[in-house]
What we know:
By secondary structure, the chain is of the alpha+beta class. The protein has one domain (27-164). It is 22% helix and 24% strand. Strands 2-1-5-6 form a 4-stranded antiparallel β-sheet, covered by helices on one side. The longest helix is centred in the last third of the chain and has 13 residues, at 119-131. It is globular and about 50 Å long. It starts with a helix and ends with a strand. Residues 3-19 have low confidence and may be disordered.
Amino acid sequence: MLFFVGLLLLAACQPTDTPTSKYPRWVGDISADPELDDADFTACNEKLAAQYFHLGQQLPYKGEKYAIEQAFAKQFVPNPAIKQSGLIRIRFMVNCEGRAGRFRMIAMDTNYQEQQFDPYITDQLMEITKSLDGWEVGMRKDESVDYYQYLIFKIEDGQLKEIMP
């Protein structure tokens, strides 16, 4: 009987809540943010979301990089008065259905120091990126998975010069 009482006391002393961390599971994970993200976008299993380099694919987009470059060539309108240069990276998640969401942007100057670009440039890049609808479903071991993707835009004197990767 004393054994059972001891077990009950031991069980009562164990924490019941799983501790949560303010840090992401992996470096680069994008947590959902209701203030930034489309409420209709959901990850299928974000605990298993692959980083872009884990899928063994180059650029999983219908028409590949050429199609993305064409979309930006048609839609991006430079402003000759803006003379900023540097790199702008937009990272996002593509869910197991091929839908993109959780877009995040960071920008840097030509010396790799964080920089704010004119919203005329960044707003266009973000809107065009969000409008891309040819993301392919990520596959791992014959199972569709969520994955992270990014595009980096090289800007010279306000002109879009290159899209990477």
